[in-house]
Amino acid sequence: MKTYFKPVTRRKFLKTGAAGGVIIATLPIWKLCSCSAPPSDFYINPASNLSKETLEKLIEIALQKGGEFAEVYVEYKVNNRVSLEENKIYGAGRGVEMGVGIRVLHGEKTGYAYCDDLSFDKLKQTAEVASFIAAEKEVRQPVGLKSSKIPSYYLVKVAPDSIVPKKKAQLLWEANSVGRDYDKKINQVNVGFSDVNKKIIIANSEGTWVEDVQTISRLFVSISAIEGDKRSRGYAYKGGTLGYEHYDLKLAEELAKDACRMAMAMLPAEDAPAGEYPIVMAKGHCGTFFHEAIGHSLESDGIRKKTSCFWDKKGKMIASKITSLADDGTIPGARGAINVDDEGTPAQKNILIDKGICTNFFYDKLNAGLMKAKLTGNGRRESYQHYPIPRMTNTYLMAGEDDPESIVKSVKKGIYVARIGGGNVTWVTGRFVFSVPEGYLIEDGKITKPLKGIQLMGKGPEALKNIVMVGPDLEIWGGGTCGKNGQAKPVSSGNPTLKVSKITIGGAKV
User: Fold this and answer.
1) Is 476 a domain residue?
2) What's the average model confidence in pLDDT over 239-244?
3) Cα(54)–Cα(32) distance, rounded to whole angstroms?
4) Model confidence band, residue 345 (pLDDT cutoffs 50, 70, 90)
5) Of 268, 175, 167, whose CA–CA distance to 223 is shortest?
6) Which residue has the higher pLDDT, 48 or 146?
7) Would you give the DSSP letter of residue 144?
8) Does 94 map to a domain?
9) DSSP string for residues in 267-322
10) Is 2 a domain residue?
11) Residue 56 is part of a domain; what is its CATH number?
């Protein structure tokens, strides 16, 4: 009899991974915590004890009701964080998650089940539950698993998980000191360092069998300033699929100064004017606009269901001729970089809009199959508790040829968007609203006074057609966490300097 699973005892799991969940400690407790590095075997994924035979058996069970496709997704994840607020280490946390998700596709239907008990009996039950999405007499035989080698787009030499909290806290203290010494008007400094370290295994009935070890890290600085009844906030951060070697005291100092610069610049800001104006978006810091206002409407689930404003636009002109949009999971070190997506498809660069023409969409396995399209490497999920859906990776407006200085000079009166903030978009209509945490008035081709309360409002399809100048200075910067259908996923975005000829500005000044 074959052994499909080598059991992992709770005692062993707790010993190697602190699997009891998240440890949260305030300063006095944190000082008492061990500052030694995690044990050398901490990175050994207990779930990797699922052998090839185990994976193949689970796939076979998942197909027993006649499903067309079956997949096993194994995940072992370690989260770390250290934060500083009010001149003290506010908290330190560590958490471990581990589990297996099993998916079966049958036509448009998805059967999905997951568990965090890795005994073979429980995994077998999980596969059986997923299999019930189908009810066919003919049972498909899976293809034997074949291990795949994949390139790496992560810039990791030193795993952040191997660095003790005390050392990470040095970065926080440096940023805190620089921020508080910057100006007397600075009244609050918040700093945080976080990292996520994850190993995944993906195996499916088509023979795919791939493993990936993923690391995402981030150092974030937030600064608040006050003068009389005026208040402002600035922020800066660095993050991505980066190892700890990318962080040092000098970087912490630079981020703190940049956050302070923004806070002080926006402190005397006046109310933004309301009305229709041309805008100039600064390079790098406005890519969120294209991610939210355009990217989500190009995801294939909305396209297939005809709930996107672009569902019938493939091959048609949807933007100005100087507008091209791409999504690329292979950008080294970017926050949205992936070696493979969460279905085992290799990362790739996809052109969504080429010189104004809609050329492609974001596809996952389900929608690509139903739409008879090629996979794009955009099947992503938050964790083993979720099934994959079409999601973006690193989305950006491609470079143009217009001189950035000339772009600003071309505006008689308008708004300079130095950084774009959060927003909301209705994918059916493309209507959007974005906040602008750092923006300035443009007068006679010059950037003049800071403005507060700027809201960008309009429709994505209209904004695309109103892009009239695009610079060559493309920068893919930062990124954040994108939410969709209850799932959060790290992404990045970017843009060169560009001009939109007209857009509605919501402001308090009429």
Assistant:
1) yes
2) 97
3) 43
4) very high
5) 175
6) 146
7) P
8) yes
9) TTPEEPBPEEEEEEEPSSTTHHHHHHHTGGGGBHHHHHTT-STTTT-TTSB-S-TT
10) no
11) 3.30.2290.10
